[in-house]
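User: Just a sanity check before I run the rest of the batch. Below are the structure tokens for the first item. I only need the designed sequence back.
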């Protein structure tokens, strides 16, 4: 009988411990509340058409206990790493519900115009959910379960401002400046600042002779996002001056980077690579291009 009692106690303790991480939002009522969103298309705001550029989707009450869903928005300014004030831009109390908000609507609600933002800035959407029993949840309450990719939670997401990439805007002369680690003194790092000529077709931009005669930088873009998919050179030398055992040095992008042709500027981090592999981010070469 003692063993049986101990078994009951153990089961009770196990049940208690298994619930300890459920003090935040779970998709299981009544623990929390979850609204999901199914977007209709790409999450971008086109600065060339702020009225016609609309973010939309269907909202659903996954936990069947939501009394009100309020969506707030603010602008994140990339260049200054600052934010505008946050305002309510949408609310719903019945589900399914349609969310449709244009770039113009979002900016107007925040007291801004399209002249106040630039490509690469973000609209940060953040939600407040009130349940039928009066509890309130925000994106700060999310736990790992509700942040999982399987749950398309409508608590927080960002929509960037962009302008469509136009080949004609990218073609022509660009001034180029370069910075690189002092311990690399490679021939292809020399001769900057300089002026280079770019050709562009179908979102593939070639900056000719960027790192010397015949040593081009080729940038391939995802035109839907105005974002680089790749940016790379061919082999720049037979070996590095840094260490002759490192053969066929080349430069390639560290990460996908926005390239908005309408701004006339492009900055990108290029990681240093050789046949044997790539160096860490501390060894990156940074290039800044400005349209002339």
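Assistant: Here's the designed sequence for the first item:
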């Amino acid at each position: 009988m003692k063993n049986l009692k101990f078994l009951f106690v153990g089961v009770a303790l196990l049940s208690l411990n298994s619930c300890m991480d459920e003090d935040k939002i779970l998709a299981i009522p009544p623990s929390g509340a979850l609204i999901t969103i199914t977007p209709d298309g790409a999450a971008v705001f086109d600065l060339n058409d702020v009225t016609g550029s609309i973010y939309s989707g269907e909202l659903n009450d996954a936990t069947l206990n939501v009394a009100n869903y309020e969506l707030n928005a603010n602008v994140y300014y990339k260049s200054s790493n600052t934010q505008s004030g946050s305002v309510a831009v949408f609310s719903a109390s019945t589900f399914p519900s349609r969310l449709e908000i244009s770039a113009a609507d979002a900016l107007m609600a925040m007291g801004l115009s399209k002249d106040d933002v630039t490509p690469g800035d973000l609209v940060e959407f953040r939600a407040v959910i009130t349940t039928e029993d009066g509890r309130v949840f925000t994106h700060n309450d999310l736990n790992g379960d509700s942040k999982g990719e399987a749950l398309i939670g409508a608590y927080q997401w960002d929509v960037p401002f962009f302008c469509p990439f136009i080949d004609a805007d990218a073609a022509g002369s660009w001034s180029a400046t370069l910075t690189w680690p002092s311990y690399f003194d490679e021939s292809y790092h020399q001769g900057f600042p300089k002026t280079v000529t770019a050709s562009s077709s179908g979102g593939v931009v070639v900056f000719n002779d960027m790192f010397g005669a015949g040593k081009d930088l080729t940038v391939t873009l995802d035109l839907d996002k105005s974002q680089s998919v790749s940016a790379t050179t061919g082999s720049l030398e037979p070996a590095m001056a840094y260490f002759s055992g490192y053969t066929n040095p080349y430069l390639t992008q560290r990460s996908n980077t926005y390239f908005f042709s309408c701004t006339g500027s492009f900055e990108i981090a290029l990681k240093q690579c050789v046949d044997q592999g790539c160096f860490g981010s501390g060894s990156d070469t940074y290039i800044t291009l400005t349209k002339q």
